[in-house]
Design a protein that fits this description.
heterodimer; A: mainly alpha; 10 helices; about 80% helix; about 0% strand; B: alpha/beta; six-stranded parallel beta sheet; four-stranded antiparallel beta sheet
């Protein structure tokens, strides 16, 4: 059961790849269908886990990754259906299928420890994950922007030129995704800080480690600084286009670093 | 006797422009042309396709005479002598006619291969004919498959992709850089023919504003008027460059008029907006190094011509795939047409069997009268089932024959073996084949 969403995401990635290569609209619809099927199975899985443990399955890094994959898939699907633009699907589905491996391998749903029994915790996690999903989309938009930018600059109009939307559209969408992500990231950090201050007195050692000295929290703040700069640079010093695209790709690399190696091996405050 | 499909016409491939101008069905409207054709009682179904490069009539008729009659109509309707027309008209028959229309709809027969307007023109040819009730079973099926062939070629191959003229290559690049052209400001430097042409193309694309700058203000004013733009003084160039999103340079200057430093200076005033420089002057107006600046996209005439050349090559490379799609759609139509051609024989064969069954039942009537009504009904039912079962395989086999000659010889053999009467209506509706269930 745990592997079904992953299998569908992988199949969707393959179909998006085939659609990208040959641009057969039937294959494109198949890809969207597979992605929607994967998300449906994933929703069902999260629902079952919620019933099983009696709360939203957001405890621990693996559960967070699962929820992140789910949110990113939903956000992308919404974007695809509203813009009728499938060329980004390959990049997103590959990300979903890759990250989806982790929860598929280790799907034990953790019971919520005493310290996490606050609605603030749920708001914090959901905001952070929504921010990460937005930033993931922004980075996909950024990477595709750079690929198309390079083709046009080098005057070798090829694969991306015929498949991707215009640089202007990619840039505007990137700007919006970063802005939406930044809002959620800010909410997530503020709520997280409030909640951390509330649980400081808890006997749980993890709660006592909630400070800037913890790599997980430090890197999250670093990413907030980076995205704040990206927003400022775009609005005030005219850093859009390629610079903004590169910034959003770097930003998401930092977030992945925070989500995976730091989340699993380095944090002393977020290891639930 | 079966229904025949013909395509008769002329195009840029077979007729010179002088003749194509005279043979123009669109002049008095397709309705008038169709009415003229219908008045001659040549065919059961007809449609007229008219584009600036093509005049064609598609008919479904009962005899081969239709070809000569339609050819004569071409001449008489347009007042062209048969001698002038004869060597320029082409005729396609049956499945070839279908294949031809599908190739036309897919843009494979167009002057610029893959151009997109033709599919719309084929659609309007059909709409006009079908609104006037000149189309029937055959042309309805033919045109719908043509639309599907056209759409498939468009979406599944790169045949219509990529600009094949320098101006369009520049415009498609502009679209790929900016997305929406309607908010863009264009600056044209130089008042030559090339600058004017590109300006007109950009105007047609709906850019927000066009400014013309030239060393002589009067010529700038003149061109600005022609392309509905504004003129500015050469001295105000920096301001104009700062405002522009697209700059077309086409002056006759012997040295570069815009250096990298010039562009760098301008970009500092507008770092957030990309600048697309289209240098179509020879010698070049813009220092090639300017293209290395962030947010500056510089294309010169050679670059654009290179794109056009590549696009043409790519279109040629897609021809085989497009042709395969057309062939598969044409094969569908051919199979359908074939199955219709064999229908009269199938109908006659079934009628023959049914009449034998009835005759035998009548002959045995006196023996059957002794049976209860249920048993009589049972006998009727069982004999019907036997006939259906006997006919099932031959019917399916006949309808599956895809070769014209083979179908004709099958038809002929059946006619002789069962002494079938000549059929009345080749367009009779297809008989419904009921698969018999076991009588037990």
């Amino acid at each position: 059961m745990r592997a079904i969403p992953l299998l569908l995401y992988a199949a969707a990635a393959a179909a998006y790849g085939a659609h990208f290569a040959w641009r057969d609209p039937r294959v494109g619809r198949l890809a969207t269908g597979l992605l929607a099927g994967g998300l449906l199975a994933h929703t069902f899985l999260i629902g079952m886990q919620t019933v099983q443990v009696g709360h939203a399955p957001l405890v621990g890094t693996t559960a967070a990754i699962s929820a992140f994959v789910w949110l990113l898939g939903l956000a992308y699907l919404y974007l695809e259906l509203t813009s009728n633009e499938r060329s980004m699907g390959l990049f997103v589905a590959v990300l979903l299928a890759t990250l989806g491996i982790i929860p598929a391998l280790d799907g034990e749903v953790a019971q919520r420890p005493e310290v996490l029994r606050s609605p603030l915790f749920t708001i914090h996690v959901m905001s952070m994950l929504l921010a990460y999903a937005s930033f993931a989309l922004a980075s996909v938009l950024g990477v595709t922007y750079v690929l198309l930018f390079k083709e046009i600059k080098a005057k070798h109009l090829g694969v991306f030129y015929t498949r991707l939307p215009s640089l202007g559209v990619l840039d505007v969408m990137n700007g919006r995704a970063v802005a939406v992500g930044w809002i959620f990231l800010t909410i997530g950090l503020v709520v997280g800080a409030v909640w951390a201050s509330q649980v400081q007195s808890s006997p749980d050692p993890r709660a006592q480690n909630m400070s800037l000295a913890d790599p997980k929290i430090l890197v999250a703040v670093v990413s907030w600084v980076l995205y704040s700069f990206a927003l400022y640079a775009r609005r005030v010093i005219g850093w859009n286009g390629r610079r903004a695209a590169v910034l959003s790709a770097v930003g998401f690399a930092i977030i992945l670093f925070n989500l995976l190696p730091i989340g699993y091996f380095m944090t002393r405050s977020h290891n639930f | 006797m079966s229904v025949r499909l013909f395509a008769i016409g002329l195009s840029h491939q077979t007729a010179p422009i002088e003749l194509r101008e005279r043979v123009d069905f669109a002049r008095d409207g397709l309705e008038a042309a169709l009415a003229g054709l219908a008045a001659r009682n040549i065919a059961r179904e007809m449609a007229v396709l008219s584009t600036c490069n093509r005049a064609e009539v598609y008919v479904a008729a009962d005899t081969d005479d239709a070809v000569d009659l339609v050819a004569r109509f071409f001449g008489e309707y347009h007042g062209v002598s048969p001698a002038d027309l004869q060597s320029h008209l082409y005729v396609h028959r049956g499945a070839d006619a279908a294949r031809h229309l599908f190739r036309v709809a897919a843009g494979l027969e167009s002057l610029v291969v893959g151009e997109p307007q033709i599919l719309g023109q084929v659609k309007s040819a059909y709409t006009v004919a079908s609104d006037q009730h000149y189309t029937g079973t055959v042309l309805n099926r033919l045109f719908h498959l043509a639309f599907s062939a056209g759409k498939r070629v468009r979406s599944e191959t790169g045949l219509g992709e990529g600009a094949v003229s320098v101006s369009y290559a520049a415009i498609s690049l502009a679209k790929k850089i900016f997305g929406d052209l309607s908010r863009l400001e264009v600056l044209i430097l130089g008042t030559g023919e090339m600058g004017k042409l590109t300006g007109l193309h950009l105007r047609a694309q709906g850019v927000r504003g066009i400014t013309v700058a030239s060393r002589t203000r009067a010529t700038a004013d003149r061109l600005a008027e022609q392309i509905e733009g504004a003129a500015c003084d050469w001295a105000d160039l920096d301001t104009a460059l700062g405002r522009a999103d697209i700059v077309v340079t086409a002056t006759g200057a012997q040295a570069a008029i815009l250096t990298k430093a010039d562009i760098q200076r301008v970009m500092k005033t507008r770092p957030e907006r990309p600048l697309f420089l289209i240098d179509i002057a020879l010698p070049r107006d813009v220092d090639p190094d300017a293209g290395t600046l962030e947010q500056v996209f510089l294309y010169n005439l050679d670059d654009l011509q290179g794109i056009v050349k590549k696009n043409l090559a790519r279109r040629t490379a897609e021809l085989a795939r497009a042709d395969a799609i057309v062939s598969s759609e044409a094969a569908k139509f051919a199979a359908w047409l074939q199955s219709r051609e064999i229908i009269p024989t199938v109908v006659a064969l079934r009628e023959r069997f049914e009449s034998i069954r009835r005759a035998e039942l009548d002959r045995l009537q006196h023996k059957l009268t002794g049976l209860p009504p249920e048993a009589q009904a049972q006998v009727d039912h069982i004999t019907k089932l036997i006939v259906e079962k006997l006919l099932l395989t031959p019917t399916e086999q006949l309808k599956a024959v895809s070769d014209d000659a083979l179908a004709a010889s099958y038809s002929d053999a059946l006619n002789r073996l069962f002494s079938l009467p000549p059929s009345e209506d080749p367009l009779a509706e297809e008989p419904v084949v009921v698969k018999p269930r076991n009588a037990t």
